[in-house]
Design brief:
The protein is mainly α and 215 residues long. It has one domain (53-213). 78% of the residues lie in helices and 0% in strands. The protein has helices at 3-26, 51-74, 77-82, 84-110, 117-142, 146-160, 162-173, 181-213. The chain is globular, with a radius of gyration of 18 Å. The two termini are 26 Å apart. This is DUF2306 domain-containing protein.
């Protein structure tokens, strides 16, 4: 199998995993309309589920799937080649929803994260870094530095996908004894974005070194 075919297969598998986790997450939404405090995520949150937290919660669960799906479309090279206007318009909508609604709501929710401040700090830092990567991506696009634009927006999307990797990691850890639910969630909260972002940056550096060594 050629390297190009392997890369295409990996991209397809990644998309399928993201969509699969998204669909499974959406199946829990009947527990949120209205709020069911016996459901897994809302269990024990009666004391905090009011005011700005409740507003942030509903903003987040509505906007997060939209941002996940729009990000997949925006990263599609076929869409970029064949529908540049769509890419531009969808990109502005994606950034607006992300920066104005999804990330602020995530920051509000981080104050009451399951397992306490350790996970909460991770989610707050994640929101800040995602916003930073997105803003830098927008700036690079306005400067017509499209390679840098794509690089920053890819980093932003990898951070957005921490919602997917969080569920994969926490689900995997639940299969093993020795981890309390709180500890497992704290580990998943940090590793869900630190590991993917580190791998992406390392891959970018490796490709950059390879290009610099070419004659």
């Amino acid at each position: 199998m050629s390297r190009m075919s392997l890369n295409g297969l990996l991209r397809m598998l990644t998309v399928l995993v993201i969509l699969r986790v998204l669909v499974l997450t959406l199946t829990n939404y009947p527990d949120y309309f209205p709020a069911n405090f016996d459901s897994l995520f809302l269990q024990g949150r009666e004391q905090t589920f009011f005011g700005w937290y409740a507003v942030a919660f509903y903003l987040h669960i509505i906007t997060a799937p939209l941002v996940l799906v729009s990000g997949l479309i925006l990263l599609s090279e076929q869409v970029l080649r064949r529908a540049r206007r769509l890419h531009r318009l969808l990109g502005w909508a994606h950034a607006a929803v992300l920066l104005a609604l999804m990330l602020p709501s995530a920051a509000v929710m981080s104050r009451h994260a399951f397992s306490g401040w350790m996970a909460g700090i991770s989610f707050m830092l994640l929101s800040v870094l995602t916003a930073l990567c997105t803003i830098l991506g927008i700036i690079r696009a306005s400067q017509r530095q499209y390679a840098a634009h794509r690089r920053w927006m890819l980093r932003s999307y990898v951070l957005i996908c921490s919602a997917v990797t969080l569920r994969l990691i926490s689900g995997t850890m639940s299969l093993f004894d020795g981890f309390s639910p709180e500890l497992a969630y704290q580990i998943a909260a940090w590793s869900s974005w630190l590991i993917p972002l580190s791998l992406l940056v390392a891959t970018e550096r490796w490709h950059g070194m390879r290009r610099s060594l070419l004659p």
